[in-house]
Design brief:
Elements lengths: L9 E4 L5 E4 L4 H21 L11 H20 E5 L7 H10 L1 H20 L38
Antiparallel strand pairs: 1-2, 2-3
Helix pairs in contact: 1-2, 2-3, 2-4
Amino acid sequence: MIKLGNREPVWLDLAEGVRLKVRPITTPSYAMIQAQAEKVFDDWAEHRAETEGLDAGDPSVRRGLMRALMIKGLALYAVIEWEGIEDTLTDDAVAAFIDENPLLAALFYHRYLSPLEERTAEGNASGPAPHGISAGAQDIAKPAMETVEPPAPIVKTSP
């Protein structure tokens, strides 16, 4: 049986007295943020990657920038109030907070998405079946031989 997550905003305690009040994540909002991050990455790859001396085709560059874009997008979507930050809550201030505090940004990302990860870990989402059968998975193994010959007998000889 699937348990529904919290549908009300919650406070995330980060560190150094920083608290963020965040709205719950939904599938449409997560998909929208991911699509926007991909669009921003593609624009960066086409127009700025070369001038910044980075290879947009490098998987680690893509993975790192996409994660940074996702963190920023999630924060811009989610944060509706904060404490411990000496600035007015605006989109520019949220973006600056994420850009200027990489460790707190990573902590936000982990704590914000941890309820989803916990539900997946306890089998309360579309994770793999515990018995290893995935109905939609493609078979990639070759069929086993129909007849298997017994191994040759081992003959011991005395020295």
